[in-house]
Every structure is written in C-alpha cells, then in structure tokens.
Amino acid sequence: MPHALPPLHDGHAPITLQQLFRDALYAFEEWDKEPSEPLVTFEERVIPISVAFEALRDCTDIVPRNIVGSVTDRLTKPWAGEGPLDEMQFSTAARVMAVLVRKHHLAIGSLSPAPTIAAAETAAPRS
Fold first, then answer.
1. Using an 8 Å Cβ cutoff, are 114 and 39 in contact?
2. Which of 34, 33, 51, 54 is nearest to 42 (CA)?
C-alpha cells in the first residue's frame, strides 16, 4: 500500500501535515467513551488520529502556540520546554498525543490496536 501521508523533508512537515495534526488534536478532544478511535480526513483519505500523530513523530518544526496549550493541558506534569518561550517541536507533541491515545484506549477498555489505514478507508470509503 502506498504511504497515506507525505514524508517529512529534513525533519520538516508540509503545512498540510501540520494542519492534519491540528485536526487530529481536535478530534481527540471530542473523543468520548467510544471504543473506536476518531478518524480524520487527509486528501480524501480517512485515517485514525494515531496515524496522524505518528506521521509527525520525527518533525522538528515548532508547534504553534495555540496548539501547544491543547497538548500541555493534558500533561500530568508541567511542561518545561528547552527553547525560548517554551517552544515545543511537533515530534514532542506527537509523542505526547500518541501516549494519550494509548491511555484513552486503556481507560475505555479498548485494548485492541488502532484501526489500520486500510480498515479506516474500508469503513469510510472516499466519495
């Protein structure tokens, strides 16, 4: 299967991937006690939010301030960035969100792995 998401270029993500991260973060915020992981759309492909977070796992771009707060509000310990003004890279935010997705699965008793991209596309085919 071809890659569903574009690759990073020297650690930098296309703006479309950064926007996908934001969409996945908002979907996570709305995730209640449903066992199925929320899905987001990228170029007419439907993917689980965990895949969106994984795509930015090695991204060195700085997360916009309005998104940093949405990530750090979920931490059990205060965020202390290494850069000026507590800058956070997408790689850090993506790893935090991946852990939070796994914790959410455990909390709601959904121990099954996240759906694959192919399964997600089957469930919600392109229109």
1. no
2. 51
Pairwise CA distance, residues 75 & 103, whole Å: 12
| pTM reported for the whole predicted model | 0.76
The full 3-state SS of 59-125, as one line of letters, equals: CCCECCHHHHHHHHCCCCCCCCCCCHHHCCEHHHHHHHHHHHHHHHHHHCCCCCCCCCHHHHHHHCC
**Residues sharing a CB contact under 8 Å with residue 47, sequence separation 6 or more, in sequence order:** 4, 5, 39, 40, 41, 117, 120, 121
Please write the tens of the pLDDT for every residue from 67-104. 888 888 887 766 666 655 468 899 999 999 999 999 99
Cα–Cα distance list, 103 to 2, 28, 32, 50, 86 (Å): 29, 12, 13, 12, 25
**Looking at residue 20, what DSSP letter applies?**
H
